[in-house]
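Protein fold
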Amino acid sequence: MFPKIKIMMLVMFLVFASLLDAEDALIWYPGGYAAGSAGSIQSALIANSKTSVKTTTLSGYTLSNYSILFICLGVYPNNYVLSQTSNGNDINALISYLQNSGNIYMEGGDTWAWDFPTDLHGWFNLYGEADGEADLGTLMGASCFVDLNFSYSGSQQHIDRLAPLEGATVMFTNTSPAYACGIAYEDSYRTIGLSFEFGGLADGDDTKTNLMNQFLDYFDNGCPGGKPAPLNVQAFSNYNNAVPLVWEAPPGQTVMAQNQSLIPSLTASLASMPVRKPIVKAGRTRTNEEHFANMAKIASVGYQADAYNIYRSTSENGSTTQIAANVDRPYYRDETALNGFTYYYFIKAVYDGQEGEASIKTSAQPSAQNSITAPWKFIRPSIDGLVETDEWSNASSFTITAPGAPNTTTLYTFNDDTYLYLALDDPGNALLTTDDQMGLNFDENFNFSWPGSSLTEEGTLWLSWDGSALNPLFRGLAGYWPHSMRWADPMAASGITAAAATTAGHVQYEMRIDLTNSIINVTPGERIGIYAYSLDMPDSTFTASWPGTVSSTVWQDAWMVPVLYGTLNLSEKGSCPFIIDAENITAPSTCNFNEFGDGRTLSMTFTALTGSGDVTVQQTNGCLTNPINDNYINCVWNISGANEITGFITDISFFYNDNDVSTLDESKLQVHRWNGSTWQYEGGTVDAASNKVTFRTNHFGDFALFERDHVLLNGNVFLQGAYEGSGLMRTSLSDGDMLPLTSTHADGRILHSIPTDICDWIMVELRTTPDGAPVTQRSFLLRNNGAIVDWDGAVTDLSLPDALDGSYYVVISHRNHLSVMSAAPIILSESTAGVANFTTALSSYYGGDAKLLETGIYGLYTGDANGNGQVQNDDKNDYWKSLVGSSGYLSADFNLNGQVQNDDKNDFWKQNVGRGTQVP
């Protein structure tokens, strides 16, 4: 009887053993330390229709029967230390499994950088770059996992920071601080190595189930990932026609460490930097020297970036352009950006001439907020530490309060031919104590870097209180952050006169800088980069810093990154004197800016306002550059608003004096706005009796008055592709934010925003004869009811420049519809709008040809993708075919719904093929 029992037990054991090996995945959590994460992995597998078994031991399992092995080692202090001595058999079995094209996932907070590596670790082709901290926050996917992101709420003491070796791919990065925490590698086998726990991920828009699905796809199909991308890319808003970019090197780069807590005036040499104390864990102590020596040895076979390429687009998902190549440091300043537009950036590292993967995309919007102009003034203030109104009126003033500081600190500045004057009114500092200071880090030649070798040219200039007076000091900086920063010992700064006082009940500073006999050697009319601050000692509190965005970054030594500095413009006497006035706008109202003198004032009547804040008007007299003709008022008004004003409509009245128009035809003065490349025509209404020109806008910027002939037109037209019936066209392009702010027509007109109910851009052209050259052209918007309108979607009396009162043929052009022209000339004048209605009669069209849209309604034929005036086979073959299935603002989208689809070809192109424009 006993033999039968033994046989039955053996059969049962064999059946049980076969059941053990009947799952898709094996989840090993040795010692039971990571049971929670193991359970989360199993739940995610179940949700993806995969079976699994959990175990605390590998004994009794045939690993080759499982498609994936999951290893969970936990996070300190609840972690398992994988050991070559204790786990030799397990490690050999796991390596054998990989040698036979296996798939292994392994997670552990300490197993990569702190624990002594086993033979298995080398198969993951990654190394522990640093023993980390409890600093996991938001995890961002990279490479094939780029669309995933999670917040992390699990155990995270000393999470290892990872770096890929040659051939491996970064899978996940922490955002702040930025480091890699997930690496994938594939050869004849595939691995995933993580330093965080799967179970610590919080479900949100992305879930652990989604992530497991990605893991399974990777183990099935692999991931042709590239070399690692730069980390923590940040773009900074509110710089004048510029966007500074700063990033951190990709994981695994061997760079010089920098002290992240240095105070500007106390910056010491690298030799005095504090060394992190060794950390004791699991009964072992590893010194920094041991760690870094080991890390450098491993890193020598990893990736090393040589340079960086910068890419930019004007919409979040739009096409990108490379704007800089082979940048040799982790920062760059895009000075081709224009105020008021949002730009999107990503960066790729360059490895031996080949680009790695793209970084996370970031965006910023330039504005004049971080640009200060020192006006030219005759008044020379007494440098006594008293910021008195009569001495500093008409100086430029700027709020430079440090982020989080409770009191508003104001910086004042102006200059003459000899001196630059600066004052600081700091209510955040009640008393002068030893080492209290006002300081400037300055980039004299504004090249966004320190001199390569000289420590005597640029750096930190500060005024330090010694108990009775201010001492001007200078410390030279050289090299670039963070790789090769060097700094000199402080020295007395000559050519500086300074004083501080608390007479106002708080600290005030005044400084006079000799422009030819001081460390700052600039000429009026030039610009320098500065980072200004006020420091309250002895607790090292920044009460003021400018640009304020710098102090809120993760780079706390950002005063060493001159690419982030604000701009200080010095004015010249006579040629370009600057005068500034500011008003606070809290509700729709009229505000007058009256500080300009010579009879010049400016009035703004806000009819709509979103948010509130300061509006600043800066008048530049006698220095209008790049004029479009010889007849203009030689004055530029720069109008800017604080960030809190997010939308507005205003009527602006520019008041001039009699001398301004003594040689001009005053009745023809028209407003123009600088769009970054030319003075763009805006129009306006002249009131000669009041010496003013008024126009309506929703755009801040630079404005000027040019003498310009102009006529008015009222136009209506329908587009066949967009027509939906009952006198209305679809507005899919503007509704889907696909309509560009810059016109695609020849004049390249730029708007601040697209109003509602807009179908597309349209071009209006005037001719004196049917086949004559254009007298004028201007882009407008086409409303869904067929009305051609101006920027606000409401104005229908369209102003066309450079045309005298008279009769004109009116030509209407669209980017993928056939152009049309009026059958007869139409009378237009400066005061009365002529009417060109192409919607109701075939007789309105030159050549008598138009598309019948419905009874009594006509419009333009669609299908001309290449805009050559003909609907031909190449419109289908060269454009529609290559774009079908795409979405966006595309020429082959003949029905203007934002999609290139079969109906564009079948319902529109095919109907119209062979047709051509009647416009000669």
